[in-house]
Each structure stands twice: as C-alpha cells, then as structure tokens.
Design brief:
This protein is 77% helix and 0% strand. The chain is mostly helical. The chain is built from 28 helices and no strands.
Length: 580
C-alpha cells in the first residue's frame, strides 16, 4: 500500500471533466453535462436512503398516517442547505474541511466533528447489519409465504451471516478505492438500486391512487408542518383517543407520544446525519472537484439526494399509512378471548394491553389471575386495541405488506426483502467509506491507504457487533434508536459550517456578498436552529431515562463546552501571533 502524504495528482479524467464543465457553462447548456458528471450526491443518497430513513418513514406512517410527510421534507431541505454550504467552502478553497476548521475556526469543533462522525458511523452501522439479517431471515430466505424465521435466532448464525456481509462490503469498498471502471460501476449500481426503490414504492402509491384508496386532501395537509404533533398523537389516533374516557386517553396518549417522539427525531436525523456532512466534501475532493464544479455540486445534491429521498420517504409513509395506520384485524377487536388470541397481532399488543388492565385493577392487579386479565383485555373497547397496535414494533415480514397492493403477498415479501437488504448493504459500504476518510484525517495522512482500510474495518466490525448489543425481536426499531443518537451530534456540524461560510479568513474573495450572503445566512440559521431544537429534544428524552444517563450527558456537554471556549481562545491567540 502507498502511504505517501504527497498531494494527489490530478488525473486526465478530472481535467477533461473540468474542461467539459467550463465549455458547458460558456455555452449556457449545462444540464446534460451535470447529469453525466453527477456522483457524490448519489453517494449521499445511498446512505440517506438506508435503514434509518426507511424505518423512520415506515413508523411515521404507522403512527401518524400521512400527517407527518412534512417532517422528512423539512429535514432534507435543511440538510441540503448545510451540505451546499460545506461543498461551496470546500470547492472554493480546495482545502480539506477538517484542517480548515482546526486552523481557522476552532480545533474543538474540528475534532468534535471528526470524532462524532466516527461514532455515528460505528453506531449507525449496527442497524444496517441487523436489517440485512432480518431481510434474509424473514423475507428472502423464508420458505413460501411463511412468517417464521429462516435462519433462526442463534448467535452463531448471526455471526456467520454478519461476517459474510462484512467481507462482501469490504471487498466492494476496496474496489471503489482503486477507482477506474470499478468505481464507475459502483456509482451505476448505487443509482440503479436507488432507482429501483423509488419505482417500487412509487408504484404502490400509484396503484392505491388508481383504486381510490388515497385521501389526497389528507396527503396534501400532511405537507404542512404541524408542531403540535410533538405533544399529541397524530393522524387518526387523535380522533380515536378523543373518544375514550379521560383515564384511558391519558394512558394511551403517554405511551404513543413516547414512541411518536422517538420516530420524529429518528426520521429527521436520518435525512442528513453528521457522517453525511463528512462524506460529501471528501468524496468531492477525492474526485478532484474544485471551483468550476460548484454548480454541479448543488445540482448533484438536489437530483442525486434530495429528490430521491423525498419521493421514496413520502411514498413509504403513504404506503405504510394505507397498510397499518389505525388498522387492526377483526379477531383482535373481538370480545371473545379465544377469538382475540387468534389475531396475528395479539402477542405484539399483549404487553401493553396487560399494562392497561393492571392500571384498571390497581392494587388488585398482583392477585388477579391471567385468565381474568385476558377476559378484561378482550372486553376493552376496540379503540384501545387500535391504539395498542400503533405501538407494535413490526418486523420485516409484517412491513412487507406495504408492497402487497402492488405485488401480491408473496412477491411483496421478496421485493421488500431485496429493497431492505439493498438499502442496508449500500449504507454499510458508505459508512465504511466515510470512516476510512475519517481515519485518514485523524492521522493527518489524507492520501494514505492503510489508515483508510483500518477506518473501514473498524466501522464494519462495530456494525457486525449488533449480534451482542441488540437482541430485540423487531430489528427495524434499532435504526430509530441509532438515529436519535445521531441527532444529538448534528448541531456540531451545522454550527461549524455556518461559521465557515461567514469567514473571510477562509473564503477570501469567494465569500458570498450582498443579497447572496443574506439568503445563505437566513437558510443556514434556520437549519442550525432546527438542528439544535431537535438535538435538545433527543438529549432531553435520553436524560429522562435515569439520573446516571442525565449526569453522563451533562458531564459530556459541560466538558465539550469548555473545550470549545478554549478552542476559540487558542485560535484568537494564534491569529494574533501570526499577525505580529
């Protein structure tokens, strides 16, 4: 391996691409050239259309119907604004962002961005492995239409499958590292995969529309942001809860809001994570992009990342809502305990329904036998059973029903499994790729292969450790947990990019001026505020879990705040020293 620290030589292809862009810009006909040269945006799409965004969209549909389509739309717009900012800075200066932040903004922000990105890579890799396993286990390898596990739940089998996934992903990353035809085909496969996913879910929504099963007014109203959804159940669950007595309404509202807030945070975080803010500038630099590529970069983000993301997540929310929102089978609604237990959902809702009955019984709950409790569960109003079903953390087999209207149950199971596996596998590859870039920067060896390989393997091995760290039955819920963690870290990147775009020291004459600067600042400030508010919500939710967690989070935040303050002092003194 070549561990040289020398600057990379600009390839003939990059020179040709640059000239192609300049010629297109001179002629005023850039669209065809932009389409031909796009690439980093599709890498962003490969990671943003991963397990986090899929799970977030699916569970948004389950819990809120189509009333929260706005959430992921707003999140991706915020993300594109900030990614456009870091791409503008990177391509205008040609400098590596980590070095730029450390020398001209604040080393605490630079190292915080770097470490947070690596942590996010390692943590987000876990749900991708679990989703791949779940797709194989419950969809692709399951016999016929069976909902039973095909691979089993043994640690040995999980380790074997995870090792195979890791080895394959690492091989693909190494092919991409070599460049040439392998890199070209890598891009093409990602584009094809994303296109297949878009078409599949778009087809479901189209078919539902043709059948007249979609409420267009509800879908359009779901595009309008509604902040009240942070405090009350969304969609039809609001109406259902309102029909219940105060005691029952309070019980179910508390349980639903806990899940709903987690899903809202996760869905927003999955749109643009902190590791994506690291991937974009370094993938552009690795391709030799510079100032003439700035327009291409914005086009790439819009067409390669934002549009596929909005299409896919909106269609997934709509399809999920049509299949699951406020819906249960007739058996579960039955007041006959025997009939009720025949429902495929009964085992999943049993725990929360038992809690509801225990609350009704009060002090007598401990001495009441299971048979009596079962009769009381059956006697509950069907509205309470519908609310309980909204809390179910569904697995890949159950969620494949979203494609059933288009493909039929058996084919839907296969196609959904392929889509989930493809999403998870492509995200594993990109997370490993990002971690390779991180380790190069961490060791200040921007062109070395050894740190890159080490970083890739660390992310992959961390992801494969899901076998020991996650034992939940519904593995689709793991991305929700991981995305909540990611949201806590995102403001580090957004605040840093805001400072960079306003730094004359970094951008010099390329710093936007006049109306352009006003527009940039308004959009970036709104994005920063949104990220900080969402992070505060995620942190508050974690702090509420226990005093130990609260103390740990406050300690980390306190130490990091001190480091940031010291970083600004250090940079100020360093600047004064250089000027003297």
């Amino acid at each position: 391996m070549n561990d040289s620290n020398t600057a990379p030589v600009v390839s003939d292809k990059v020179l040709a691409d640059r000239q192609l862009l300049l010629d297109a810009q001179a002629s005023g006909n850039v669209l065809g050239t932009f389409v031909k040269l796009s690439g980093p945006g599709w890498l962003q799409s490969a990671i943003t259309l991963g397990g986090g965004s899929l799970a977030g969209a699916l569970f948004l549909g389950v819990l809120s119907g189509t009333s929260m389509i706005w959430l992921q739309l707003v999140a991706i717009v915020m993300g594109v604004v900030m990614l456009s900012a870091i791409s503008y800075v990177t391509l205008s200066t040609g400098r590596r962002p980590f070095e730029t932040i450390n020398s001209d903004i604040n080393p605490a922000l630079g190292w915080g961005w770097l470490i947070a990105t690596s942590l996010a890579n390692m943590i987000w890799c876990m749900p991708q492995f679990s989703l791949c396993y779940d797709a194989l286990d419950r969809n692709l390898l399951a016999i016929g239409g069976s909902s039973e596990s095909a691979l089993g739940d043994s640690i040995g089998m999980k380790l074997l499958v995870s090792a195979a996934i890791l080895a394959t992903a690492f091989s693909v990353v190494m092919l991409n590292l070599k460049g040439g035809k392998a890199a070209i085909w890598f891009d093409r496969v990602l584009k094809a995969l994303i296109g297949m996913i878009v078409i599949c879910f778009f087809g479901v929504v189209t078919l539902l529309g043709i059948k007249g099963e979609l409420n267009l007014a509800e879908i359009l109203s779901g595009l309008v942001p509604d902040i009240s959804q942070w405090n009350e159940p969304a969609g039809r669950l609001t109406e259902i809860a309102a029909t219940l007595p105060a005691e029952a309404r309070s019980f179910w509202s508390d349980k639903i809001m806990s899940s709903q807030r987690s899903v809202m945070i996760a869905a927003a975080a999955a749109a643009v994570g902190i590791n994506m803010t690291f991937l974009l500038p370094y993938s552009m630099l690795s391709r030799g992009w510079d100032k003439p590529f700035r327009g291409l970069a914005r086009f790439d983000l819009a067409t390669g990342m934002a549009i596929p993301f909005v299409l896919v997540t909106s269609c997934v929310v709509i399809a999920s809502a049509a299949s699951f929102h406020a819906r249960v089978d007739e058996n579960l609604k039955s007041n006959d305990p025997v009939v009720m237990q025949q429902s495929p959902l009964f085992k999943s809702v049993q725990e929360s329904l038992v809690e509801r009955v225990d609350e009704q019984l009060g002090a007598d709950a401990a001495t009441t036998d299971e048979s009596t409790k079962l009769q009381r569960i059956a006697a509950l109003d069907s509205s309470e059973k519908i609310l309980a079903a909204a809390l179910v953390k569904r697995d890949a087999f159950q969620l494949s029903e979203t494609l059933a209207p288009l493909l039929g149950a058996s084919l839907a199971k296969l196609v959904f499994g392929l889509g989930v596996f493809g999403m998870g596998f492509s995200t594993i590859i990109i997370l490993m790729l990002i971690n390779g870039y991180v380790f190069r920067e961490m060791l200040n060896r921007p062109d070395a292969n050894t740190p890159f390989v080490i970083g890739c393997l660390i992310a992959g091995l961390s992801g494969a450790s899901w076998v020991y760290l996650w034992s939940g039955g519904a593995k689709f819920w793991l991305p929700i947990i991981a995305s909540g963690f990611g949201m806590m870290l995102l403001p580090i990147a957004y605040i840093t990019f805001f400072l960079m775009m306003n730094s004359k020291r970094i951008l010099g004459d390329e710093k936007p001026k006049g109306l352009s600067m006003v527009i940039w600042n308004v959009l970036m400030l709104l994005s920063v505020i949104g990220a900080v508010v969402a992070a505060q919500a995620a942190i508050s939710a974690e702090m509420a879990k226990s005093d130990t967690v609260r103390l740990l989070i406050l300690s980390v935040l306190g130490v990091y705040a001190v480091l940031i303050a010291l970083g600004f002092v250090y940079r100020s003194r360093r600047t004064q020293g250089l000027s003297n």
